[in-house]
Amino acid sequence: MNNGMVYILECSDNTYYTGVTNDIDRRLAEHKMGIDKQCYTYSRRPVKLLWTSEEIPIDQAIDLERMIKGWRREKKEALMNREYEKLPDLSQAYSSKRNKRTGR
Fold first, then answer.
1. Taking residues 47-75, what's their average pLDDT?
2. Residue 56 is inside which H or E element, if any?
3. Residue 13: how many CB atoms within 10 A of its CB?
4. Is 8 exposed, middle or buried (0-12, 13-18, 19+ CB in 10 A)?
5. How confident is residue 104, by pLDDT bands cut at 50, 70 and 90?
6. Which of 36, 46, 38 is closest to 15 using CA atoms?
């Protein structure tokens, strides 16, 4: 089975981009060179690699990428800073705020 890793980049506009790859060096070079004009990072270069996961089976890496893409900035920062104990609270805090706003 193929392996992959999830990565988070910081873009020049201070946003984060989350992606998945089986070759982080190649993928980072592609982002930096601007290979794909349709890519989120193309107009937000330069980019800086902030975090990578360990190599995991590619299907798990894709699932993890999708999950992280749905996270708020604060939760991504906790992950990158290895503040794993904060992750559950950041999820609950967001859910609680959302429920109060929407009545759900």
1. 97
2. strand 56-57
3. 8
4. buried
5. low
6. 46
Task: Mark whether 40 and 56 lie in a shared domain.
Answer: yes
pLDDT of the residue at 92? 76
Q: Which helix (H) or strand (E) holds 50?
A: strand 48-52
Give, in order, the Cα–Cα distances in Å from 67 to each of 22, 53, 97: 18, 13, 19
Are 64 and 16 in the same domain? yes
Give the residue numbers spanning the domain of 14: 1-70
Closest listed residue to residue 90, CA positions, set 100, 79, 104? 79
Q: How many structural domains comprise the chain?
A: 2
Asked whether residue 100 carries a pLDDT value surpassing 60, the answer given is no
Lowest mean pLDDT among 23-27, 28-32, 59-63, 98-102: 98-102
What one-letter code names the amino acid at 11? C
Q: What is the pTM of this model?
A: 0.86
- Taking residues 45-63, what's their average pLDDT? 98
